[in-house]
Amino acid sequence: MARPFVLSNARVANGSIRDLAVADGCIVNPEHTALGSAIHISLPNCIILPGLIDSHSHLDKTLLGGPWLPHRAGDSVIERIDNERRARPALRSGLRDRAEALLCLAVSNGTTALRTHIDIDDEVGLANLVAVLELREAWRGRVEIQIVAFPQSGIRRRTGVDELLDEALSLGADLIGGIDPVAIDGDRDGHLQVVFDLASKHAKGVDIHLHEMGEAGVASLMRIVELTAANGLAGRVAVSHAFCLGSVEHSSAAKAADALGRAGVAVITCAPGTFPMPPVELLRSAGVRVAAGSDNVRDLWSPFGNANMLERCMLVAYRSGWRTDEALLRSLDLATTEAAAVLGMDGHRLEVGMPATCAVFPVSHVPLAIVERPRPRLVLSGGHPIHDPERLLRQH
Ligand SMILES: [Zn+2]
Predict the structure, then answer these.
(1) Ligand 1 centre from 357 Cα, in Å?
(2) In this structure, are residues 118 and 148 in contact, taking their beta carbons and an 8 Å threshold?
(3) H/E element holding 265?
(4) Global pTM value
């Protein structure tokens, strides 16, 4: 059995100094009898945060670890899908290595859990899913991985994708995905009906990519709200991107936010470059859970991305015009408390009895962490060091 340890003199997110005592992988009361033989590690001028959560990633798309590929896709979603379909066959053999390179990068930035969308279509079939299911097993206990069965190329415009999605959920995918029911499939009701029928059949959650802009996008959002209520899926449905909420009049966005809040539909944002940003404050004031994700990291969709959730929170704050300490503190929620709620990770808190899954950053408070985005000194998953460049727990 591993020796217990105590991380002391660091601050937690609310600014208070607190000893974090760990025995048998869990956070224990500092007076716990098992701590008699504990290792004590003093971490002054550091903060301890729950392990960061990346709520939107694509493990099967990254080119990390391979040679640099110049970006050649056009700007539209359809052009990027077609470009990827042309290039993807030559990249299939190295998927595991590239996905592991992305996981290692994420961990080195303090991430301990992520939700990944995995392509399922008429060309790649279930091959990427099978590879990532194996990867999830290999990484169990280090990084918690949620898998979304993602119809990247559409459902209605491709043959047999609905059956593949059905099989993917039987094989172990955690959620059913979807994408732009009108812009990609040209069939809002048909696309969303397949998605929600499969969610109901397999009792799984939903996470839909929605890049559609303006009132057309809001109409898709409202249909998702209706289907969430009709299928009793409150709290288990998320819409990723939701650019439309940042591209319509305030009154329309406010009405949509209220509907999302009442229906228990979350929004996941990646603070996208030039696309309209969903109004995070408006959503949160309407009771909508909002989380953040990296989305593309060095892949055929974008040369950017570094799997750094502090940076993603900074980008949300930057694009939202947040500057006060209070606002910067709130931006962190998108990768901690709010993300845990969206992903249904109830035990992801620095409380006695919970797994010791956390990251220690060399800054004295959260606003500085958001501004400077330092690498962590230590990352723990269930009490085990998964990133420990200084060998702080070397005796452990
Ligand atoms: Zn995505």
Answers:
(1) 26
(2) yes
(3) strand 265-269
(4) 0.97
